[in-house]
Each structure stands twice: as structure tokens, then as C-alpha cells.
Design a protein that fits this description.
This protein has 332 residues and is an alpha/beta fold. It has one domain (25-329): Bacterial extracellular solute-binding protein, family 7 (D-Maltodextrin-Binding Protein, domain 2), CATH 3.40.190. It has helices spanning 2-23, 38-53, 68-76, 87-90, 109-130, 155-158, 169-178, 187-195, 206-209, 214-217, 237-240, 245-252, 258-278, 288-298, 302-309, 313-329, and strands spanning 25-31, 58-64, 82-86, 133-148, 162-165, 181-184, 201-205, 220-236, 282-284. The strands form two sheets. Strands 1, 2, 3, 4, 7, 8 and 9 form a seven-stranded mixed β-sheet that branches. Helix 7 links the parallel strand 5 (162-165) and strand 6. Helix 2 runs antiparallel to helix 12 (245-252) and helix 5 packs antiparallel against helix 16 (313-329). It is globular and about 60 Å long. 42% of the residues are buried.
Length: 332
């Protein structure tokens, strides 16, 4: 009888253990970030923290999806639960996010950080929630530079070149203003297109570029810093609304702090630029005067771009302009 009692107790514990495991939901955080970068590390840290902060209710794991447009669609539809994604990547679904990618939007990183955090993000959170996504944290990817197979140090040098246009409003505007011979391609088709000379130039953030075949097939990177890529961690709202409040709070605390992501992206770029040069790549830093030459060609189309986005884009643009004025008045 003693053995029988112990056997029943053991079976009961096993049943409780199985029930607890079954109650633990498996969630995915989708990202296009490549291993070996801080961008990838941000996603891994979020997944680890989200799991720990859920009190045993969730197990969150990273899932690679090469196309940000595709992963955004999957999260909105609830096929995946969380997206770690740039605003540019989500702009097909939430067009207003493209305002954050207007070429030559910021005069300095300090202005960018101040205005983004205080003025832009509150509006963006409301816009994304209305589209079915809860932003639980914002992050950093870096600035796009011009990538090419030959020489492309000046605006005149890219005129007429076969260039890849990303499926975003900012990319289309940038290359149109420069007179590039544009072909719109998703990222999955960009790298073979560069290798086969179907296109000879594009624009990418260095933190991503250096992890791809483009760094070999198009080994010239011009640091124009023309288009900034803020990013976010966003949760499907329908799934979010079903979570207990303590789990929601845990997810909000899971991302790496945005100020830390900015510092880490800058630090990683410095190290990777040095390594890129050692391996024969060309990284061209521009003076303020040289960058101003690019801006002079591109920036006149900013308002036309914002007007074309629609939705609450003009409201967001007005908030950014207000933030810039406050930043200047504070002597930042």
C-alpha cells in the first residue's frame, strides 16, 4: 500500500508538471537581424528577458524571417506574435512610419534622439495600436549609406546608375531625386542582383550591410547618413489583450533600453568599419560639406514625400517640427 500511495503521488506530480508545461505558451519574436551583430543580440536579449519576465507563462524564441515586410504581415495576422523590425520594414502596413525615414530628416544624432523620444514615439504608438500592434520598446538600426560596386562618392556619380530601390517611400524618393535608374527589389533579390550586375548600387545601414554578401560584391560604402532607421518591438494587439497585466508589464521591460541600443550600434560600427577596411573594403567618411551636397539634391522633396504618405503623417511631421524647435530653443 505504501508503494501504491507513493506511485499515486508521483503520478499526480507528473500530471501537474505536464499541465504546467501545457499552460506555457510558445511565442516567436520575428526578426531579419543576422547573427554576429548587436541587432541580433538585441532580439536574443528581448526573447530571454520576455521569457523570464512572464512568470512561466511564455517561452519566447527568436525566429529569422528574411523580409521585414513579410514578418510584419505575419505578426499583424497573428501567425507570429512579436516583431523586432524597423519602421521602414513596417511602412507597407503602417505608412506613417515612413515619416521616420524621410531622407536627411535630422541635423544631428542629439536632435534625432530628443525629438524621436519626446515627440514622435507617443504618436507612433497610437498609430500602430490602431493598426493592431502594441509597441513595447523602440530600438536602433543605424543610418543608411550608399553602397556601390565602383565609385559613388558624389551625387553626380550615381546619376543614371542601375540602383536597387527598397519597397519604401524614403528609398524611392532618395534615388528619384538623384536620378538613379531604379529597380525595386526585396532584400532577398538584392544580393544576387548585385552579384550578377543587374544593379550596381543600393543603400543599406552599415550594421546590416556588413553581414551580407553585398559587402563583398559591392565593397564601397559611402557614409551619407541620409536615411535613419529607428526600430521597434511590436506585439500583435489581439494576443496582447489576452495577456495578464503582469505579463504585459514584463514584456514592456524586456527590450534593451533604446539609449543603450544607440550606443551599441555606434560602437559596433566603429569596430566593423576598421575590420572592413582591413579586408579591402572602402568606407568613405564624408565631411559636413560633402554630405550637404547630397542633402541639397534630395531634401527639397521632403514635404512632397510626407504629403504622399497620408493618414496621420502630417500630424507626425508637425510634432517632429515642434520638437526640433524646442530642441533648438534649449540650446541642445
Amino acid at each position: 500500500m505504501k508503494w501504491f500511495g507513493r506511485g499515486l503521488a508521483g503520478m499526480a506530480l507528473s500530471v501537474l508538471s505536464i499541465a504546467g508545461a501545457q499552460a506555457q505558451e510558445q511565442w516567436k519574436v520575428a526578426s531579419a537581424a543576422q547573427p554576429g551583430t548587436v541587432l541580433h543580440a538585441f532580439v536574443e536579449t528581448f526573447a530571454k528577458n520576455a521569457t523570464a519576465n512572464s512568470g512561466g507563462k511564455l517561452v519566447v524564441e527568436r525566429q529569422f524571417v528574411a523580409s521585414e515586410q513579410e514578418l510584419g504581415q505575419q505578426v499583424v495576422r497573428g501567425r507570429l506574435q512579436i516583431a523586432s523590425v524597423s519602421f521602414a520594414g513596417m511602412s507597407v502596413l503602417v505608412p506613417e512610419g515612413a515619416v521616420m525615414n524621410v531622407p536627411f530628416l535630422w541635423a544631428s544624432k542629439a536632435e534625432r534622439d530628443y525629438v524621436t523620444d519626446k515627440f514622435a514615439m507617443p504618436i507612433l504608438r497610437a498609430i500602430f495600436e490602431a493598426k493592431g500592434l502594441i509597441i513595447v520598446g523602440d530600438s536602433e538600426v543605424g543610418y543608411n549609406g550608399v553602397v556601390c560596386k565602383g565609385q559613388c562618392a558624389t551625387p553626380a556619380s550615381v546619376k543614371g546608375l542601375k540602383v536597387r530601390i527598397a519597397p519604401t517611400a524614403g528609398s524611392k524618393m532618395f534615388w528619384s531625386q538623384l536620378g538613379g535608374n531604379g529597380v525595386q527589389l526585396p532584400l532577398s533579390e538584392l544580393f544576387p542582383a548585385l552579384e550578377q550586375n543587374l544593379v550596381v548600387a543600393c543603400d543599406l545601414p552599415f550594421s546590416y550591410y556588413i553581414t551580407t554578401p553585398a559587402a563583398t560584391s559591392a565593397p564601397v560604402f559611402v557614409d551619407t547618413q541620409h536615411l535613419h532607421h529607428p526600430a521597434m518591438v511590436a506585439v500583435n494587439k489581439a494576443l496582447w489583450d489576452k495577456l495578464p497585466k503582469d505579463v504585459q508589464e514584463g514584456l514592456r521591460k524586456a527590450p534593451v533600453a533604446v539609449a543603450d541600443t544607440r550606443k551599441q550600434v555606434d560602437a559596433e560600427q566603429d569596430a566593423k568599419v576598421a575590420d572592413f577596411r582591413k579586408k579591402g573594403g572602402t568606407f568613405l567618411e564624408l565631411t559636413d560639406a560633402q554630405r550637404a551636397e547630397w542633402q541639397k539634391v534630395v531634401a527639397p522633396a521632403q514635404m512632397e514625400l510626407v504629403n504622399s504618405i497620408g493618414g496621420r503623417a502630417m500630424e507626425l511631421w508637425a510634432a517632429i517640427e515642434k520638437g526640433k524647435k524646442e530642441f533648438a530653443a534649449k540650446g541642445k
